[in-house]
Design brief:
- The complex is a heterodimer.
- Chain A is mainly β.
- Chain A contains no helices and 11 strands.
- The radius of gyration of chain A is 13 Å and the shape is globular.
- In chain B, the strands form 3 sheets. In chain B, strands 2, 5, 6, 10, 11 and 12 form a 6-stranded mixed beta sheet that branches. Chain B has a 4-stranded antiparallel beta sheet with strand order 3-9-8-7, with no helix packed on it.
- The model of chain B has no long low-confidence stretch (mean pLDDT about 90).
- The chains are: A mainly beta, B mainly beta.
- The interface of A and B includes residues 4, 31, 100 and 105 of A.
């Protein structure tokens, strides 16, 4: 079946602009995660949704970052007033349930470049 | 706080040689441990995971890992490297607490020489 998809695959923007990154999880998966991967580093957790609600947003770096999942499926990560330091690959993952043993399935990521 | 250390950002082996990628974690509670592989321009793919039970875990593509609690390690091995194994490998941990997020190591890039 279809895996996690993310759009766009690449996004180039200018400093100070607003961007939205979209994630389509695997159908039927109730948990959705966002991570950020900087060059040469492992992914770092940003936020996690159980259904429509953000269950853990402790990884969001500041209030310029916000994410929604209004119908419990597709999620959008929103970044306001982008800064050059926001440049990274943003990864989305989903899992069937919220169980700690569940596998997280990752999408291919959106590469964000802030000029 | 939990953390994951992967020793060696780059590992090079000859085709047919043993692959050993090291992962150590710090945790005050029982961990769940994962190895993911990332091929160029692709998403992370799960190789294997340890949750409970048998400490030697077998995964896809001939990889396996052993959870050693006394050493707080979860090293990844493969008896014979193949050219197609060249990729970046990430060890990750999730603690047996309320948090669901994975904590990743910084990754090890595996090169396979012909």
């Amino acid at each position: 079946g279809a895996g996690v998809s993310q759009t766009p695959s690449n996004k180039v923007t200018e400093k100070g602009k607003y961007v939205e990154l979209r994630c389509d999880p695997i159908s039927g998966h109730t948990a959705l995660y966002w991570y950020r991967q900087s060059l040469g580093q492992g992914p770092e957790f940003l936020i996690y949704f159980q259904g429509t609600g953000a269950a853990d947003d402790s990884g969001l770096p500041n209030d310029r970052f916000f994410a929604v999942r209004p119908e419990g499926s597709v999620s959008t990560l929103k970044i306001q007033r982008t800064e050059r330091g926001d440049s990274a690959v943003y990864l989305c993952a989903s899992s069937l349930t919220f169980e700690r043993t569940d596998t997280q399935y990752f999408g291919p990521g959106t590469r964000l470049t802030v000029l | 706080a939990q953390s994951v250390t992967q020793l060696g950002s780059h590992v090079s082996v000859s085709e047919g040689a043993l692959v050993l990628l090291r992962c150590n974690y710090s945790s005050s509670v029982p961990p769940y441990l994962f190895w993911y592989v990332q091929y160029p321009n692709q998403g992370l793919q799960l190789l294997l995971k340890y949750t409970t039970g048998a400490t030697l875990v077998k995964g896809i593509n001939g990889f396996e890992a052993e959870f050693k609690k006394s050493e707080t390690s979860f090293h990844l091995t493969k008896p014979s490297a193949h050219m197609s194994d060249a990729a970046e490998y990430f060890c990750a941990v999730r603690m047996d607490t309320g948090r669901r997020a994975l904590t990743f190591g910084s990754g090890t890039r595996l090169q396979v020489q012909p």
